[in-house]
Structures are given as C-alpha cells and as structure tokens.
Amino acid sequence: xxxxxxxxxxxxxxxxxxxxxxxxxxxxxxxxxxxxxxxxxxxxxxxxxxxxxxxxxxxxxxxxxxxxxxxxxxxxxxxxxxxxxxxxxxxxxxxxxxxxxxxxxxxxxxxxxxxxxxxxxxxxxxxxxxxxxxxxxxxxxxxxxxxxxxxxxxxxxxxxxxxxxxxxxxxxx
Length: 173
Hints:
Order of helices and strands: EEEEEEEEEEEE
Distance between the termini: 19 Å
Helix content: under 10%
Structural class: mainly beta
Radius of gyration: 15 Å
Shape: globular
Strand content: 35-45%
Largest sheet: 5 strands, antiparallel
C-alpha cells in the first residue's frame, strides 16, 4: 500500500506529503520507489531520506539505493507547491523490490469502484494567498486541511510506462 499523508491539501500552498509504504513485494524488501509527478506540479522534490538517493526529474521522483524490509512500514516524502485549478492530484508509483515490483498506478474514476492498485491521490481544496507549510505528519503552520480516505489495495500488477491521457491509463517509467 502507498497512502498519502495528508490526504487533502490547500491550493497555492507549499506542502510535504509523506507517501506511506506498508510492505514490500511478498517476502522481498523495497529497494526503489518511482513517483510520477502530476503535470500540474512543476516544483516537486524528494525529501532527503537516510540511506536513499533521490533523483528529481521534471516528471518523476525516484528514491533508490536503500532497502526497506518486506514487513517494515515507512514513508517517502515529496515537497511541492499545490497548483490551483485542480480538485485532486494523482501520484502513480512503482514500488521496486529486490524480487518483483508493485505498481500503484491505476487512476480512480469518479463514480467507479476503486481499482485494485490505485495511485495515491491527494485532494486539493480551496485557495490561499500565502503559502502554508504542511509537515509529513499533517501539522500546519496555518490552515491546510486533512481528511482520511479508505483504499483497498492488492499486490498483483505488471507494466510500466508513461501517463497516457487518451485512455485514462497511467503507468510510471
């Protein structure tokens, strides 16, 4: 599972979202996390994580070089400015393990059942004239909003690639 914290942020604010990982691939440890950054976000950066290397590209943030035990929960944090004019941001992610991978890439569609391996989604609410800092724990220096969401995830999945808006399918390269 890859779940964002906070699950809701305010448009126009500077935030750090912690993407929580609950487990590896079956009995295999996590060795890399590749996050596809939504096109509306132009300044995403991975937050330093002891033992891991971060590669910040325009549209993908990759954490690699570390190892997270297959039963160890942890998080990978990404900082960015929340864009205005959107209602949510999807962060498709490929969780690479020593053996295998999990692809949390399916985009949930309004009115449809949640996909088996949904991409982490952060809701965008309201607007703000001044940036608000939101910590990974959801604490705020001002008025960011957080909310809980329920997600059902499974551990099967396959392909990797790029976002394709034409058919709604999204994968991470």
